[in-house]
Amino acid sequence: MKKIILTAAIILGLGLSTGYSQxxxxxxTKKTEKMENKQKVVSLLKAIETGASEPVSYINPNKYxxxxxxxxxxxxxxxxxxxxxxxxxAKVNTIRAFQDGDFVFxxxxxxxxxxxxxxDIFRFEDGKIxxxxxxxxxxxxxxxxxxxxxxxxxxxxxxxxxTEVNKKLVKSFVEDILVNGRMEKLAGxxxxxxxxxxxxxxPDKLSGLGAALESLGKQGIFLxxxxxxxxxxxxNFVLIVSEGHFxxxxxxxxxxFRVENGKIAEHWDVIELIPSKDxxxxxxxxx
Length: 287
Fold this sequence. Notes:
It is a single chain. By secondary structure, the protein is an alpha+beta fold. It folds into two domains: 2-139, Roll (Nuclear Transport Factor 2, Chain: A), CATH 3.10.450.50; 160-273, Nuclear Transport Factor 2, Chain: A. 24% of the residues lie in helices and 31% in strands. It contains five helices and ten strands; from the N terminus they run H-H-E-H-E-E-E-E-H-E-H-E-E-E-E. The protein has helices spanning 2-12, 33-50, 74-84, 163-179, 206-218; strands at 65-66, 91-100, 103-111, 115-125, 128-138, 196-197, 223-234, 237-246, 249-260, 263-273. The strands form two sheets. A five-stranded mixed beta sheet has the order 1-5-4-3-2, covered by helices on one side. A five-stranded mixed beta sheet has the order 6-10-9-8-7, covered by helices on one side. A hairpin with a 3-residue loop joins strand 3 and strand 4. Helix 1 packs antiparallel against helix 3. It comes from Flavobacterium soyae. InterPro entries: NTF2-like_dom_sf.
């Protein structure tokens, strides 16, 4: 950890800074910039745990825009956050990594001030990271009603030729169902009752989702998405970044969907409360 902080300090002249551990790790020799950027991100995240110094060089030291509202802007802000971590406490296991143009987004099992599941998005310019968004949620102690965790499930990326079609499908689902509440369209997005759910509180199957939403409604707790901010995808995976209400809370919603044969087949999500503006440590906004 000291190595990474020291290296960032040298890069900045003032401040500080900061894998993809699937069964088949990404090779260090890449044929495409796409894979290279994925590996940069995975290595950078892993450096939070290991203290490796080289991944700091993947960040543009003159331009690092931070959207985590609990962290000050730039490398110095993130370095200060790392310094606050209890020694040797950080663990980083990135399960999924994707790229869409200049964006790389990841799905990670963290111990970062406690066990958490997170999505991170990084934007690249000229091969360097220049911007970061994330969403973090406390990791549940137990699996959901169907025995799934927030991070397990399919990892294989395929159907690269269908990326844009799948992005359009998933965006339409979120707009129709979660933004506009057009529940009569719900069944059309799924293959019958087949649906694998990783939300900690909702069971598998489309009928399980419907029952959970109905139960919340009876308790006066409603889920309402107000605005979609990003739609990112690679092949059969699509990430939607939105803001809206869950009950009385105003939240950031990161929803990852897996599409199979033109239908939504699997879902992971992370929900994070958006703090009041007087508690923000940067002025870049959550989105």
